[in-house]
Amino acid sequence: MKLIFLGPPGAGKGTQAVKIAARFGIAHISTGDMLRAEIREGTELGNAAKSLIDRGELVPDDVILGMVKNRIQREDCKNGFLFDGFPRTIAQAEALEAISAIDHVINLDVPVERLISRISGRRMCPDCGAAYHVSTRESGACDCGATLYQRDDDKEETVRNRLVVYERSTKPLIDYYAGKGLLHTISGDADIDTVDARIREVISK
Ligand code: AP5
Ligand code: MG
Predict the structure, then answer these.
(1) What secondary structure does DSSP assign to 71-83, as a single string?
(2) I need a surface site. Which of 58, 61, 102, 138 has the fewest CB within 10 A?
(3) Residue 122 falls in the annotated catalytic set
(4) Who lines ligand 1 at CB under 6 A?
(5) Is the pLDDT of residue 134 over 90?
(6) Are 12 and 192 in contact (CB under 8 A)?
């Protein structure tokens, strides 16, 4: 099974991807998590990407495509994979089409005011990548034991630009995948388990 999770920042792509990938035994591939790992490790790619990410701009298509092509060769992708936050431009989608066929594209639809409150309260685990919200996780610790942190690109000004960039560069993928008959739009404006059940229903058909 090969899936794409599409949706604006804060829609819940990462939250749902972790659950679906575990349930179906497929690899969870988040280009955002991969870039943050490069930044933490201080690689050349990470250093070049950091200023773009901190401004809420996209990393160049060729950099992302190079990362993704390598990643899908790995052993854990043999049963399939779930892309979270990739593709993000029409050029990325066209390049992906040349290397792999996709079964379903899940578009998580959430009203913009909800996106901002979700992102401003988000806390991330540096080790396992789990996302929490301050309203439900006061302890500041992940289930795996690590101390949670706030992403540098979750500052209000950066979030506003991420939403603009989403509208301009990524939203056109909704029509692109609808035209290919692959798109399923699901309301992500419900509790986490309800959204999970909605996604499972669509991909189990
Ligand atoms: P990336 O890391 O992909 O960020 P994003 O797309 O902006 O999405 P987010 O991770 O912010 O949101 P999410 O949908 O995963 O929400 P989450 O589950 O965490 O990309 C970061 C940057 O990297 C980009 O800006 C770009 O610069 C670069 N980049 C990455 N990929 C790229 C690409 N392909 N091309 C070019 N550049 C790229 O949930 C958010 C919060 O809401 C959490 O607090 C969570 O607990 C809460 N929550 C989730 N679901 C629910 C629910 N149902 N009810 C209540 N709360 C919920
Ligand atoms: Mg995410």
Answers:
(1) HTTSGGGTT-EEE
(2) 138
(3) yes
(4) 7, 9-15, 31-32, 35, 52-53, 56-59, 64, 85-86, 88, 92, 118-119, 121-122, 131-133, 153, 162, 188, 191-192, 195
(5) yes
(6) yes
Q: Look at residue 7 in the predicted model and tell me its pLDDT.
A: 98
pLDDT tens-digit series, residues 162-178: 999 999 999 999 999 99
At residue 76, does pLDDT exceed 90?
yes
Going across the sheet that includes 2-6, the strands are 27-30, 81-84, 2-6, 104-109, 183-187
Q: What is the pLDDT of residues 138-148, one digit of tens each?
A: 899 999 999 99
Give nearest CA residue, ligand 1 atom 42: 118
CATH superfamily of the 2-109+154-204 domain: P-loop containing nucleotide triphosphate hydrolases (3.40.50.300)
